[in-house]
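so my prof wants the structure for this chain in the C-alpha cells format not the other one, which i didnt know existed until like an hour ago. anyway here's the sequence
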Amino acid sequence: MTSQIDQAGDLRTWKSYEYIGPDHRYHDVHYQIDGGPAGGPHIWSDDSMWSIDLPAQPQAILPFIRYQHWLSEPPIDLRHATLRMTLRGDDLNLHGGHCLFWVVTYAPASQLWHHTYQPLTINNGDWAEPTDIQLLPNPEHWQSNSTTDVSAPKGGIVGALGACFSYGISFVGFSRKVTGRLSLGNFELLTDNTPSWPFIFNQRRPNAPWLTVSRDRQKKSSPLTQTPVLRLHDDFRLISEAVPFCYLAYLQSEPTTHRRDLKNAVLMVQQNIDWLDTKGGKVGFFI
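here's what i got, hopefully its the right format
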C-alpha cells in the first residue's frame, strides 16, 4: 500500500477558502510546529479566513482545502482509500452544522461531493480521537453539491474518487456562518491504487515563457513575481483585426516543431482579478 502522509512541511500546502461574490480567495493556513496531537505540528484556520460558498447546494464552508497541483502531483485515485485525521475546535460554533470530508474532480466536469456517511469528530478545547474513514464509492455515502439528481455531473462519485483533483474539510447544514477556529493534525491518506485516467496530466513538463501582446504590438515577457504567479496590468493590446475583437493577455508558443496533443486534456487555472473591467466581454482560453 502506498501512502500520502502529511509531514510537517506538507501541512503548509493546505489553504482556507473564502467566497467573494463571483470570485474567491485562498488564504494560507496558520502553521505551528508544536501544540498538535502528541505535541506535534498542526495547522489552523478561523472564521476570518472562510465564508459561505453561496452558489453551492447545499451551502458549505471550506475551512481546509488542498489541490493536488499545489503538491506538484497529478490527481489521486481515492477509491477505497483510508483517511485518517485529528481535529480540534477552539470556540468553534457549528450553528447546527456538522463537519465532513469532501472531494472534487474536473474530469469530465466539475464535481464536489461531501462524505455524509461519517461526519468528522471535533472536540472544543482539545484534540479529538483520530478519525478513520474508508472512502467507498457508494453513492449512499456521499452528497453532491448539485441541487437534483438530474443535474448531478456525469460519472458520479466513482468518477470523482477515481480522479480526485482536490479534497478537504467542509462545514454543512449550518443555520448561519460557522465561527471560531478549526485545527488539523495527523492528516493521512492511504491508497494502493494506481491512477489510470482518460486524459494526460504532465504538469512537470518544462514550458516556454509566457508572453503578452503589448500596446506597442511587440510580444514581451509577462512579469513574474518571486512566487510562480504572472501579473499583468492594462498594457495588453486590442487585436482589432480579429473577429470577435480580443486581447491576448497571456500567450505561449511551443519551443519546438513538435505539437502538443491537448485532446482530452484538463486545463487548470487559478486567477486573481483586481479592478478588471471586461466591458461586457469574457476571459477565455485559446489555441
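also thought this was worth mentioning. Confidence is low (pLDDT under 50) at residues 5-9, 147-152, 225-229.
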